[in-house]
């Protein structure tokens, strides 16, 4: 198997305490079936899914309960068998934070009765459609529709299978590669064919030798020579898409673009595993591997979790809480966010739960003024200027934020860690992006309203012209010779009728 050499060094980032061995001591745990699942319709990037079941309806495991709400959306399925007990709004964790989504409540029956599975179709278009309906989305965190990503508008030269998993605490991809390498490699080969890629490279950080060995052996077993391997240094955030494309190809992705602009598609190893299960067994995406970790959980582990499992049930499955839990974080401690409680469900985006004690999280939120030291810029992977972004975001100067590349900020949190003034830069940039999106939306709405108003004025002007023209025609008609003669004749007829009538009386 070919080892791919790196074309560049990683830019920015730093070595960080990984804390991953907490959850890698035992195999992936299975068998969790909570009494009730809460399955949000908003689990993927793009439009929410649309419910296709009713309250009181019995469903089987893998049955479609939410159809894709659009081309960029994906289907949602029952994670086990049971009865739909409610359809109502509730909190749904997404990659950008908690949101409110329509949720289907499923009272499970403990039988895990599977729905009949479909066949893997023969044509590329039908396969893409099947992947979308099967609810397969990127499990690395961004939850983009896998079908849309593979379909792509640009030619794909290189498929990058991201197993770098650089975020501290998270080990679900590492364990998946160790325990299911054959499925992961088969899924990657299927992706490569669907995307029309020339080759595939598996990327693994140097601190995961067991995972690398396992996928290498699986690839050797399958004997496909198009697969390569690359080891990247254990530096946070080595697993960012932009970083990977740069170090593997030497090409930079233009600002505001995605990997296809550099001839690459990045997919997570968990997504490859999900795709292989769908192709081989007809199983839609109804579960994912979640790392449950932190000093505040009794038995840290990786667990295969039915989608919709309340986090409380997941923590109980891992032996419950231990000691004083200061914060419950969804995702790792760098890119994740704190949850208000444990009654929210695991969605397709949920790769990790950290039950953290006070020594594992930042406890002081006091900020000091910026001293312009430039440390934030030194660690920024996409080579932005966080200090200037901070100034522009403070006054909501969106033009300046655009010019400084706000949209290229990957919200990695490196600048926060580097900042001696403890300024929560990443949160500022997250908020600035949201404010930017709201402002853009408002500008779009205002522009549409203005267009409508201008169209209405033009319509009214045409109507006024028509009325004026009709009036002019009428007056001209009245004044014409023929009209005058007709009017005179009518007046004469009327006067004759009047004379006759007077004579009769
Ligand atoms: S690291 Fe903090 S103090 Fe230094 S320039 Fe950046 S924002 Fe300012
Ligand atoms: S959060 Fe954004 S600005 Fe800060 S280091 Fe990461 S990419 Fe750069």
Please summarize what this structure is.
The chain has helices at residues 124-133, 146-151, 172-179, 181-195, 209-222, 241-249, 269-281, 311-317, 375-379, 386-394, 398-403, 414-418, 425-479, 481-504, and strands at 2-3, 36-40, 50-51, 58-59, 64-67, 76-77, 82-94, 97-108, 158-163, 199-205, 227-232, 264-268, 287-293, 301-306, 327-330, 337-338, 352-356.
Per-chain topology:
Blueprint lengths: L1 E2 L32 E5 L9 E2 L6 E2 L4 E4 L8 E2 L4 E13 L2 E12 L15 H10 L12 H6 L6 E6 L8 H8 L1 H15 L3 E7 L3 H14 L4 E6 L8 H9 L14 E5 H13 L5 E7 L7 E6 L4 H7 L9 E4 L6 E2 L13 E5 L18 H5 L6 H9 L3 H6 L10 H5 L6 H55 L1 H24 L1
Parallel strand pairs: 1-11, 9-10, 9-12, 10-11, 13-17
Antiparallel strand pairs: 2-8, 3-5, 4-7, 5-6, 7-8, 13-14, 15-16, 15-17
Helix pairs in contact: 3-5, 4-5, 4-7, 10-13
One iron/sulfur cluster binds next to helix 12 and helix 13.
Summarize the structure in words.
By secondary structure, the protein is α/β, with parallel strands linked by helices. It has 3 domains: 2-30 and 116-302, Rossmann fold, CATH 3.40.50; 311-360, no CATH class; 364-505, no CATH class. The protein is built from 14 helices and 17 strands. The chain has a 5-stranded parallel sheet with strand order 1-11-10-9-12, with helices on both faces. The chain has a 5-stranded mixed sheet with strand order 14-13-17-15-16, with helices on both faces. A 4-stranded antiparallel sheet has the order 2-8-7-4, with no helix packed on it. Helix 10 packs across helix 13. 43% of the residues are buried. The structure holds iron/sulfur cluster (SF4) (2 copies). Residues 370-376, 386-387, 390, 418-421, 423 line the site of one iron/sulfur cluster.
């Amino acid at each position: 198997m070919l080892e791919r050499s790196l074309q560049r060094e990683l830019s920015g980032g730093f070595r960080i305490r990984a804390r991953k061995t907490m959850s890698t001591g035992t195999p992936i745990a299975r068998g969790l079936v909570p009494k009730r699942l809460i399955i949000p319709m908003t689990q993927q990037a793009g439009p929410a899914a649309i419910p296709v079941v009713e309250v009181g309806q019995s469903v089987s495991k893998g049955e479609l309960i939410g159809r894709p709400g659009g081309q960029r959306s994906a289907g949602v399925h029952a994670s086990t068998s049971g009865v739909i007990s409610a359809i109502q709004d509730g909190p749904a964790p997404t990659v950008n934070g908690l949101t409110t989504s329509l949720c289907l409540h499923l009272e499970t029956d403990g039988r895990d009765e599977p729905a009949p599975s479909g066949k893997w179709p023969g044509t590329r278009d039908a396969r893409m459609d099947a992947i979308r309906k099967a609810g397969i989305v990127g499990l690395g965190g961004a939850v983009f529709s896998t079908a849309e990503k593979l379909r792509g508008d640009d030619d794909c030269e290189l498929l990058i299978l991201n197993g770098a998993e650089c975020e501290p605490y998270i080990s679900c991809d590492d364990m998946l590669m160790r325990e299911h390498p054959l499925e992961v490699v088969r899924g990657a080969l299927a992706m490569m064919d669907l995307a029309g890629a020339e080759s595939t490279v598996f990327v693994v950080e140097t601190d995961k030798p067991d995972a690398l060995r396992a996928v290498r052996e699986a690839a050797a077993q399958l004997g496909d020579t198009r697969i390569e391997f690359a080891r990247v240094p254990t530096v946070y955030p080595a697993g960012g898409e932009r970083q990977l494309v740069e170090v593997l190809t030497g090409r930079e992705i233009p600002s505001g673009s995605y990997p296809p602009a550099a001839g690459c598609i990045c997919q997570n190893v968990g997504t490859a595993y999900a795709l292989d299960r769908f192709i081989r067994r007809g199983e839609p995406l109804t579960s994912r591997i979640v790392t449950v970790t932190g000093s505040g959980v009794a038995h840290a582990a990786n667990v295969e979790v039915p989608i919709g499992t309340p986090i409380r049930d997941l923590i109980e499955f891992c032996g419950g809480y231990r000691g004083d839990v200061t914060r419950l974080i969804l995702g790792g401690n760098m890119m994740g966010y704190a949850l208000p409680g444990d009654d929210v469900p695991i969605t397709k985006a949920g790769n990790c739960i950290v039950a953290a004690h006070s020594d594992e999280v930042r406890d002081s939120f006091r900020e000091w003024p910026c001293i312009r030291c430039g440390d934030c810029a030194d660690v920024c992977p996409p080579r932005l200027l966080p200090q200037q972004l901070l100034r522009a975001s403070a006054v909501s100067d969106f033009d300046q934020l655009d010019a400084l590349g706000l949209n290229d900020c990957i919200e990695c949190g490196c600048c926060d860690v580097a900042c001696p003034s403890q300024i929560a830069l990443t949160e500022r940039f997250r908020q600035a992006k949201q404010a930017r999106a709201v402002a853009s939306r408002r500008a779009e709405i205002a522009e549409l309203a203005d267009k409508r108003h201008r169209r209405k004025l033009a319509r009214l002007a045409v109507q006024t012209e028509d009325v004026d023209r009709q009036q002019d025609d009428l007056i001209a008609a009245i004044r014409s010779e023929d009209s005058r003669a007709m009017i005179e004749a009518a007046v004469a007829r009327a006067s004759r009728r009047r004379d006759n009538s007077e004579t009769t009386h």
